[in-house]
Design brief:
The protein is an all-beta fold and 119 residues long. It is 0% helix and 53% strand. The protein is built from no helices and eleven strands. Strands 2, 4, 5, 6, 9, 10 and 11 form a seven-stranded mixed sheet that branches. A hairpin with a 4-residue loop joins strand 7 and strand 8. It is globular, with a radius of gyration of 13 Å. The termini are far apart. 31% of the residues are buried.
Length: 119
């Protein structure tokens, strides 16, 4: 079983930056592809970014391209989401998730961390 715990959320102003962290335990996260999702009130959960085990394949959703950056440190079993130039529409609960290589289904999820961006 893989446990994921997010941290780093908070209340910021538009234009500010935040870095989210996702710490994995129970199993080594280096065997999983990792993703960051977000869910705003009244909206469906959406994939924000995804990174493979070796960090040589990365996906970003269009709304965050050029502003967000996903990275991982396999030695620390941690995945990061650097968020720059934040906008009020980035306000959401952000979740870390893991999927096995070759699968499109994210099997393990964290509890989420709230990010609120004021205008």
């Amino acid at each position: 079983q893989l446990q994921l715990v997010e941290s780093g959320g908070g209340l910021v102003q538009a234009g500010d930056s935040l870095r989210l962290s996702c710490a994995a335990s129970g199993r080594t996260s280096s065997t999983y592809n990792m993703g960051w999702f977000r869910q705003a009130p009244g909206k469906e959960r959406e994939l924000v970014a995804d990174i493979n085990r070796r960090s040589d394949s990365i996906y970003y959703a269009d709304p965050v391209k050029g502003r967000f950056s996903i990275s991982r440190d396999n030695a620390k079993n941690t995945v990061y989401l650097q968020m720059n130039s934040l906008k009020p529409e980035d306000t959401a609960v952000y979740y870390c998730a893991a999927r096995t290589v070759g699968s499109t289904t994210y099997r393990y999820w964290g509890q989420g961390t709230q990010v609120t961006v004021s205008s």
